[in-house]
Description:
Blueprint: E1 3-9, H1 11-14, H2 21-33, E2 36-43, H3 49-59, E3 65-69, H4 80-88, E4 92-94, H5 96-111, H6 122-126, E5 129-131, E6 135-137, E7 146-151, E8 156-161, H7 165-185, E9 189-196, H8 202-215, E10 219-223, E11 234-241, H9 244-263
Parallel strand pairs: 1-2, 1-3, 3-8
Antiparallel strand pairs: 4-5, 6-7, 7-8, 9-11, 10-11
Amino acid sequence: MLAVCLISIGNELLSGNTINSNATYLAKNLTTLGFRVMKIITIPDDPVIVPTEISQAIFSNEYRLIMITGGLGPTWDDSTSLFLADALGVPTELNTEALSIVTKRYQNLFEQELVETAQITPARKKMAILPVGALPIDNLVGTAPGIFYEHKTSNTWIYCFPGVPREMKEMYRLIESEISVLSEEKDVGYFEVEFTTGFTDESLLAPYLAQVRQKFDVWIKSLPEAYQKREKIHLIISKSASSRNDAKKEVLDAKEYLQKLINSLHN
């Protein structure tokens, strides 16, 4: 099993001012690749809490992949790079490659007349200060580079992305092929199918789902809405296996079996 921990940083997430769509996006995409997201943590911009949670995730030796979102920008509260270095027990440094990314982005924004100056101010330079040993990830949407760090002792890959969803999604797209290699190491496959049943009452559907679970090693999630005359219950059947084909066969067989059970009600 390739376990993942997602860490979302930001007071705005905990106050309810911002919906944590980043965690949902990453969990969905990583699950599709064959990873298993074991924990999603949302924490404030706190100099004690953030390094502590990151350190616990790293040194628990439970996760092959840790992804952190938020706190990479130019303002005083954007300190994820420093917090990561603290958790790792390494110093920070001005990363020349990261500085080049920041410099090019501001020059491009200046040429588009989207910023008043291309000058690399201390606040802008701050975004290029990374933990020693870290590698920057290009930001094609915003200005703050992402961070990659391979912690060899725990065999964990750590990624830090900006909190702005558009930036995070584009940065994830850049590294998705890299993390796909991890799933290939374990020959892990994942498959899911979604469909809508004719049921409007989840309690009546439940016995049929139990029968499917007794026969097939799949996960079935029913997604009911509030009771409505026209509402039909939506289902997701999924499985992780040694290959995607194995997972697909089990899921589709389970779906076919469930549909036969449901159809028998009307015969």
